[in-house]
Amino acid sequence: MYPDDLRYSSEHEWARQEGGRVRIGITQFAAEKMSDVVFIELPQVGAQVSFMQPFGVIESVKAVSDLFAPVSGTVVEVNTALANTPEIVNSDPYGQGWIVLVEPKDPAELQKLMSPEQYRKVVGEVST
Amino acid sequence: MGNDLRQTSLYARHVALGARVVEFGGWEMPVQYAGIVEEHRAVRTAAGLFDVSHMGEVEITGPGALASVQRIITNDAGRLAAGGGLYTPMCLPSGGIVDDLTVFRTGEERYLLIVNASTAQKDFAWIEEHTQGAQARNRSDEWGLLALQGPRALGILRRLTRSDLQPLPSFHIITGAEVAGVDGCFISRTGYTGEDGFEIGTPWDRAPRVWDALMEAGRPAGLAPVGLGARDTLRLEASYMLYGNDIDETTTPLEAPLSWTVKLEKGEFIGRDVLVKQKTEGTARRLVGFEMTERAIPRHGYALRSDGTVTGQVTSGTFGPWVQKSIGMGYVARAQAKPGNSLGVEIRGKKAGAVIVKLPFYKRSG
Predict the structure, then answer these.
(1) ipTM of this complex prediction, to 2 decimal places
(2) pTM for the model
(3) Chain B residues whose beta carbon lies within 8 Å of the beta carbon of residue A61
C-alpha cells in the first residue's frame, strides 16, 4: 500500500524522485479517506510550489482538502488526465493518479519527509 | 467523540458493515459504507437501505389533535383521511421555519409527526407548547426508522409483509403492519431520495431484525446499505430541502420553493400573518437551483454573485453523482431568481460561473 521507493508527507502526499525531478501524488490512505474524488484544482505548468504549502485542491463528493507540496520547486508537468477522470486518484494513486511533476529547488528537502516505514506507523499500518 | 452521543439500535450493524461513522445531530451515524457514489447509484438503479432511526416521532392524540396540528403547520391537514400524510414546514410567528416534517393521520384523532433528528428536542417543545385539547407525546425513543428506497424497493418489501403495498399511494401510511415477523410496524410511501420507496417504523429494539431481513431479501436485487453521505447527494439531486442548510428559522417557506406547502385559505396558523404579507408583496429573495458552467464544486457558505455584487450564499452544493454535474442551491435577490440567469460562485477567492436552472435537478421517469 505504501511503496518503498517513495517519501511521504504528514499531509499524506507522496514524492518520487525521477532523475532530477520529483513526481507528486496523494497516498492510498488519503485517497481512501477522501473516497470518490470528483475534482482536482491543479497549478499551471511553471507555477512555483513551496515545501508543505498548499499548491492545489482536491475535492470528493463531500469534502474539500488542500494539496501540500512535499518539495519546493517549479511545476514542469501536470496530470491533465485528472480533469476528466479524477477518479484515477482513487483507483491508482501511485501510478496513473499522480498529480504534478516538479523541478525541485532543493532535493535535500525530501529528507525532511517520512520514510515508508515511518509513514506506515502514522497511518496505523504495522509492518510484519 | 463525546460520551453524550447517541446510537441507534442498528449501530452494531453499521460497524459490522464497515461503515465510516460520524457525528450527526447528536448521533453516531454511518456516513458511508462502500462509498457515496456507489451507494447513490444503487438507490437510483436498484435499492438502498438507510437507518434513519435518529429522526424524531411525535404523536398528537385527542379531540384537539387536528386543530393543534393545523395551528402548528402551514400545510392543510384538514384534507387528510386516516392513512393520509403530507410534507410541511412548521413556522415561527415570524414565518421562519422551526423544522420541516411529515404529518400522517393515523386515526380519527391521532396524528404522527416525523421530524428531523438535529431539531427533535426543540420541535417537541414547540409542538407541545402549541397543542391544545390533545396530548403531544415524544415517541422518538420508541420508534426505529428505516428507509428503503429505489426502483426495486417495492419488490423487496413485498416479500416481507402481508400488507398490500402496491396500491399504497405516495405519502400514505399503513399502521399496525407486520414486517419480517415484527408486529406493530408502520410503512409509509415516503422518502428523501427522489425514488419510489418506503419508510418503515419499527419498535426501537426490533429495527435490527427488520434490517437483517431486508438486507437478506434485497441481496439478489442489489440492495445496498446507504449512509448519510449519499442521503445528502440523493436529496440534493431531487431538490429536497435540508433543514439547517437550505431552510432555517431565518428563512420562510415562501422564500424557499415551498409555497405549495403554505395553505393560507385553511385558516389561522402560526406564521400566517407574515406569510400573507410575503405572498402579497413578494419576498425579497428566493431559493434557486443552479448548475456550474465550469469545472468547480459549490459548497455550503460560498458567496453567490450576480451583476458584480454578492446576492446570497450557497446553501447546499455537491457534485451530483447521477446527474454528473456540479449543482447547488442558494438564496438570491428576487429580481435575479430566474432560470437562465447567470451567477458567479466565489470558490477560494475566484469566481466560477453558474446558471440558474429549474428545480429539481433529477426527476425519476415513470
Answers:
(1) 0.84
(2) 0.94
(3) 36-37, 229, 233, 318-319, 321
